[in-house]
């Protein structure tokens, strides 16, 4: 069987196992993280000009300089640990290490799920960094005392999608039907999310990355003290869905943004992502926190913005938390 046929067979088998359709969260998890077919685990070619999407650190080092200053503000006396979760190409890590300076150098830990990206990070960073398979493992290496950060991690977590219809919420599942991918909607128990707490018009779609909430619960109790920075595109709720009745799901392939049903095609070959609901993050993490725009964060860290930042300075939010 060709790789494409293998993939189609895998999806057909999964659909049969699950009773005729695949809940969107499962679809997204397999499309991004299936060991053989997943975009991050097997398909990703690069981040940046040669890849499907670009992230801010690949374009410019201002974010790295701001993160370094923020991390130094939260550094304990003596030996300290910095954990980056989801490090992409490793460019951000390299720039953060440069910006903190060798005299302040932390023990730098990376938690990375993608084998091809981890290999690229290892090529770039060599022995400056220790890699881990999970945040719990990284925290164990720091006795629970660490400064943590991530950039564009949360948007890569599989999410559940709901639509309001006849005043009730129904959840999205996808069904393959004669080569077409068809949306189906069914009533399911709702996850905990601020997205359901507002008066939305009929047809509104919302996304809930419940998998991120579960993932947090696996390691938050092991984090004893420090600070955490979460950077991503998104907003608080309900601003997140203002004038976005179809929600925020999209795919990226060769820097093209694909929305609606087009986002379902190209299983495993494209990045799939949603905007982050920062109100949910604040509730789920439950620590003292503050959300600002990236522009405000850079200004606070006294790092000048950059022309290539353009609209991203407001579209990106920065959540800071301390424990
Ligand atoms: C959109 S990329 C962002 C990469 C990088 N932070 C940047 O700004 O260029 C998402 C990154 O998170 C990683 N990732 C996704 N889920 C993860 C998880 N559960 N644990 C660790 N890394 C994860 C991906 O493999 C990838 O490196």
Question: What's this entry about, in short?
Answer:
With 323 residues, this protein is an alpha/beta fold. The protein has one domain: Rossmann fold (3-Layer(aba) Sandwich), CATH 3.40.50.12710.
What does this 3D model show about the protein?
- With 323 residues, the chain is of the alpha/beta class.
- Strands 2, 3, 4, 5, 10, 14, 15 and 16 form an eight-stranded mixed sheet that branches. Strands 1, 6, 7, 8 and 9 form a five-stranded antiparallel sheet that branches. A three-stranded antiparallel sheet has the order 12-11-13.
- Helices cover 32% and strands 27% of the residues.
- The chain is built from twelve helices and 16 strands.
- The protein has one domain: Rossmann fold.
- The chain is globular and about 60 Å long.
- The longest helix is centred in the N-terminal third of the chain and has 15 residues, at 3-17.
- S-adenosylmethionine binds next to helix 4.
Write out key terms for the chains shown.
323 residues, globular, Rossmann fold, alpha/beta, binds S-adenosylmethionine
